[in-house]
Amino acid sequence: MTIKKKKTKSNKMAKWWRNLDSRFCNDIAKTQAITSFELSEEDNTELVILLLKSCRNSIMRTKDKNKPTYYGLPHYFSDYRKMATALIKRADFLECWVNCYKAYKDSDRRMNLRPTLGRINHNKGYNLANIEAQPYSQNTSDRAVERFSAPCIAVVATKADSTATVFESPSVVNAIFRIDEVMELGVTRNMMHGNLNNGIRRVTENYSMFIIGRERLMDAPIIVDMGIPVSVVTDDLRVRYVHMPDFQEETKSCLELNVDDFGVVYIKFVESIENMKEEVAV
Q1: Exposure string over 7-34, b if 16+ CB within 10 A, otherwise e
Q2: Contacts 24+ apart (CB under 8 A), 61-68
Q3: For the segment 30-61, what is each residue's pLDDT rounded down to a tens digit?
Q4: pLDDT value of residue 238
Q5: Of 147, 177, 210, which residue constitutes the final position of a domain?
Q6: Does 190 lie in the same domain as 108?
Q7: Residues in Cβ contact with 66 at an 8 Å cutoff, skipping those fewer than 6 apart
Q8: Which residues pair with 230 in a beta bridge?
Q9: 68 and 193: one domain?
Q10: Is the C or the N end of the chain the one with fewer CB within 10 Å?
Q11: Whether residue 262 sits in one domain with residue 168
Q12: pLDDT at position 278, please?
């Protein structure tokens, strides 16, 4: 099959799915559950479209490796239309969704008030009992809290002195504040990328920063390539207990981090991640 034929087939499939979604939204908008709120026909259709899109997005993000906060979360539904139908049958949810939609409409459809699906308990996935209607601003705020508010260990390596400093903080925001207080790097939360389970990073020519959740290090050690050669590891005064490696004459950029059952943070130098993989393979 040629590339042109593949694109034609793909376009036809996409159009077919759009038509299905359009018919679904129009049909649902005419049901008693929706019309009982006495909105206009256009409003009824729009609020159903927004719900369907939110359902689809919730399923897609749990399958997207580029969204580590959501990837792998359990999701009760695999079909977003069935998910929307099930949510509409929940009278309490539907009332909240319609109220969110009314506020969104009355504000001239400001983005921060657009109705979205949020999880009540961020430690759980998407199921009917754990889903609620939220304005977009609240949902994104909750996601930020989920992503950044947990005890963590931070390591900052500086090129100028080949030193890595270990920090311990109750949250990422606190860690960044303390790092800037001690090292004056001018780092803000918006500069960081990642999450506490897989690591939040920032790497520049002069320094490298890595932050990981404390609970994650208690599960199993993690090896991180700081990207900057290090010969000395030291700790911030606020770290409770840390076991640091001896001075290394030969600098190394990879460190192994873990926390034992007594809460002691262990840091040690290791070979490159590639060499560690080769040793395991042998």
Answers
A1: eeeeeeeeeeeeeebeebbeebbeeeeb
A2: 62/125, 62/126, 68/194, 68/195, 68/197, 68/198
A3: 999 999 999 999 999 999 999 999 999 999 98
A4: 64
A5: 147
A6: no
A7: none
A8: 252
A9: no
A10: C
A11: yes
A12: 32
* pTM of the model as a whole: 0.52
**Over the stretch 88-143, which tens digit does the pLDDT of each residue have?**
999 999 999 999 999 999 999 998 889 999 888 777 889 999 999 998 877 665 55
Q: Which DSSP symbol is given to 112?
A: G
Tokens of 61: 């993000």
The 10 Å CB-count burial string (b at 16+, else e) for 230-263 is bbbbebbeebeebebbeeeeeebbbbebbbeeee
The average confidence (pLDDT) of the chain is 82
Q: Which of 132, 147, 162 is the last residue of a domain?
A: 147
Shared domain check, 56 and 168: no
Burial pattern 97-134, b for ≥16 Cβ within 10 A else e, equals: bbebbbebbeeeeeeebbbbbbbeeeeebbeeebbbbb
